[in-house]
Amino acid sequence: MTKEKTAAIVLAAGLGTRMKSARPKVMHPIAGQPMIRHLLATLEVAGIGDVVVVVGEGDDAVAAAAAPHATVTQHERLGTAHAVLSAREFLAGFDGDVLVLFGADPLITPETLDRLLAERRSAADPAVVVLGFRPPDPGLYGRLIVGDGGGLEAIVEARDATPEQLTVDLCNSGVMALDGRHLPGLLERIGNDNAKQEYYLTDVVALARADGLGCAMVEGDADELVGVDSRADLARAEALAQERLRAAAMAGGATLLDPDTVYFSFDTRLGQDVVVEPNVFFAPGVVAGDGVVIRAFSHLEGVSIAAGAQVGPFARLRPGAEIGENARIGNFVEVKNAVVESGAKANHLSYIGDARVGTGANVGAGTITCNYDGFLKSHTDIGAGAFIGSNTALVAPVRVGDGAIIGAGSVVAKDVAGDALAVTRAPHKELKGWAKRFRVRGKAAKAAKAKE
Fold it and tell me: Domains of the chain (ranges plus CATH)?
């Protein structure tokens, strides 16, 4: 990672009109995190702390996502060079290397940035280094024209290219490393004599060469340089990000039975010997310890799962859930803001919210913690070793003591002492022959109605 003096300018003022969204383009999420946060995290890993983000007028959400980094506003969107010029105060007196990146390029890696900066600092001392790539369809990308000696001679926009130049498949990603000593002088001379009357950063190559300064190119992986300009681009970037996350999970010792059906968030953390069955979705904030089994069709968010626990199938773990060692959360069980301690079990069809389930306790099928009265939420405490019979409603606030048993079908609205039995069923009542008489009356009424 870089130890030289380096600054980064992240361009994040694009309108993203093709996204057809009220949300700023760089705020669309990939793997549960806004695109711009992915790029800023990459810069942090690369050791680049001096970062300024160029935002558009009124883009408060982008500025908040960029924090704690500085932001500047591009009041008029007049091109990439104009956006970089918006950060001129940030660059005042800076003579190190300057990276220019785009907030909608979330998949670029620290290793690629290191290679770009290494070329900038090479013996050739190029003033401008452009990151190139070879997309499957070069289309409207600008082409990089490289001389026989390997130096970058020009960036030619596709609409201005000759038929011969259009056969070049090496394209401009827009990402650059520039010598901060020359950058201010180059930027100030960029004009807008073009069809769009915009100031293009790509003009620095021609200006630098005219000044006798060297220009170079580093080629990157096309998958890292998927710029997101549309919903289709967003889907492709998501797919590529998921491929990386799945590969990292398996390299870390997790087993994914059907990797393509498992979706991770940027911060998912799995221990060794974790098994993830098909069709599991990890939203942000999930940590699973060693030996955890997550069965098919489960959805997890904001939860910690201790070693040896089993979850699912068809479980939903919501923010604030803490699942203890060797605990069991079974099919169609939802847990929210609750602690399920070691060895406790809720194996089927239950809701546990704003609660504690003590060590070794058993929560029977159909049990509900009634935690919300329409205004406030209250806590349910189930003691260690307690047994909650099926189809029980625990009306919070309520405490079930250690070792207590709740009879099936009970509605418990008062605390239950440890080792006690609580049953709230209505008395059994039986009317002999009533069912037969009911059927006779029913059939007669139905026959009479059919004759009307």
Answer: 6-225 (3.90.550.10), 253-422 (2.160.10.10)
